[in-house]
Amino acid sequence: QAVVDFERLGEHAAAFQGHDVGFCCLGTTRAKAGAAGFVRVDRDYVAQAAELARAGGCKHFVLQSSQGANQHSRFLYLRVKGEVENLVQAVGFDCCTIFRPAVLLCRRQESRPTEWIAQKFLGIVAWVFPTAYSVPVETVARAMVAVVLQPGEGKVEVLENGAIHKLGRA
C-alpha cells in the first residue's frame, strides 16, 4: 500500500508502476469538499491517477462512477461523473470497465443523516426490488474482482446496477 498526496500526484508516479489492473473508487461529496473540491477529487484526481496508471503499464482500469452519469447533466454530481468517464476512456487502456452503481449501501465513519435515511428506506425497498435503487458495497467489490478475472469482449464496458448485482453474486 502506498500513501500518496493527491495534490502532488505526479510526484508519486512510482506508486503507479508495474500494475496490470487499476481500481479507482475515489470520491467525495459536495457537502464535504464544496463544489470545486468535489470536481477536483471526483474528476481531476481520478483522471490524473488513470493517466499515471496507464503510463505505468496498467492495461485494465476499473472505475466506479454512478448511476445516471452524463457529461451533459444539469446536476453537478452526474455531470462530473460523466466527464470523468470520458476522460478515463480517452487515456487508452486496453480494457476499461466503468461501474455505475445506484445508491451504495455501506456503513460510513462520518455522519450523513440524509444518506442514512435514504439507505434505511432503500434497504427496505431492496427486499422488493433488489437491484433497482441500491447495491451493497460488498457486491460492487465482488463484481469488480469478477470483471477482472473474466474480462468482457470490448475495449470499454459499462456496467449498470443490475449487471453489478449479477456479477457480484457470481
Number of DSSP-assigned strands: 6
CATH class: Alpha Beta
Helices, by number, come to: 5
The biggest sheet amounts to: 4 strands, parallel
Roughly what fraction of the amino acids lie in strands?
15-25%
Q: Could you say which overall geometry the principal axes of the C-alpha atoms support?
A: globular
- Order of strands across the widest beta sheet? 1-2-3-6
Helix content: 40-55%
Provide the gyration radius in Å: 16 Å
Folded structure, characterized:
By secondary structure, the protein is α/β, with parallel strands linked by helices. The chain has one domain (18-168): NAD(P)-binding Rossmann-like Domain (Rossmann fold), CATH 3.40.50.720. It contains five helices and six strands. The protein has helices at residues 30-55, 76-90, 113-128, 137-149, 161-169, and strands at 21-24, 60-64, 95-100, 103-105, 134-136, 156-160. The strands form two sheets. It has a four-stranded parallel sheet, sandwiched between helices. Strands 4-5 form a two-stranded parallel sheet. α3 (113-128) links the parallel β4 and β5. α1 (30-55) packs parallel to α2 (76-90) and α4 (137-149) packs across α5. The two termini are 28 Å apart. This is Protein HTATIP2.
Short description:
This protein has helices spanning 30-55, 76-90, 113-128, 137-149, 161-169; strands at residues 21-24, 60-64, 95-100, 103-105, 134-136, 156-160.
